[in-house]
C-alpha cells in the first residue's frame, strides 16, 4: 500500500469524516460517523475523533493530522479565529492551531471572514476546498461555486481567495418546500422535471422580486397552470437562477465567463445546467479531491505550535 502523507478530517455540523491521503492526493482509506459538531455534546467530540483516527494513528504514528470545517467553530474542539481575505495558503496556514487529543496532534484549519462595505461573510471548511481546486487561473480570476445548504461563490486570483459570498439557497428550498405554503400541494417526490427547472431558472435570472416569484409557484399550481408534481423542480430552478443572477450582479462571475462547480451528484448537475442556461461555461469537479489537495497544501510547511 502507498504510504500516506496525512490524515485529513472533514468535520461538519452533522457528520465526521476521516481520510487517509497520499502525497498525490489519492484517498487511500476513508471512514465516517454521525458525530457532527452540532449533533453531539462538546464533551464527546474528542472521544469521537480518537475513535475515528485511532486505528490509522497506530499504523502511521508520524503523519500529520489536519482538520477543517466546524471543528474550529465555537462549538467545535477549539474555536480558531477567522482569517481575513484576501488569503492564500500561507495566510490560512498561519492561522492554524494545534490541539493535543489522545496523544495525537491535530492541526485545525481556520475559517475565512470577508468584509466589504457594511457586510460580512464567513466560511469554515470551504476555504480548504477552494485552496485545493485545480483551477487554471493563468488567464485571470477564477469563479467557483460550492453548492449546498449554504452555497458559496468565490473568486480565486493567482491561488488567493479574494472574494466570496454565501447564499442560503438549500436551506430556503428545504424550509419553503416542507414547512411553507407549498407543503400542502406536494405530491409524492417526483423525478427531476427538466422543463420546469429550465423555465424557472430563466424566471430566477430575471426576477425583480424573489418573494413574489416564490409565491407564484403556488399560484401556478392552484390555478391549474402547472402540475403539482413539478413544484420541487420549479422552486429549485427559481432559487438557483436567482442565486446566479446575484452572483453576476456582485461580480463574482463575469458575464459569458466560466464557473467551476465543485460538488457531486444531482445538485452539482443542477448548478451546471443553470449556469449554462445563463450563457456561461461550467465545469464540474468532485469536492473530496479538492479537499485532499487543500489539506496537502496546508500541511506542506512546518506545523503550527501546540497551544
Automatic annotation (TrEMBL):
Signal peptide: none annotated. This is 2-dehydro-3-deoxygalactonokinase. It comes from Leifsonella bigeumensis.
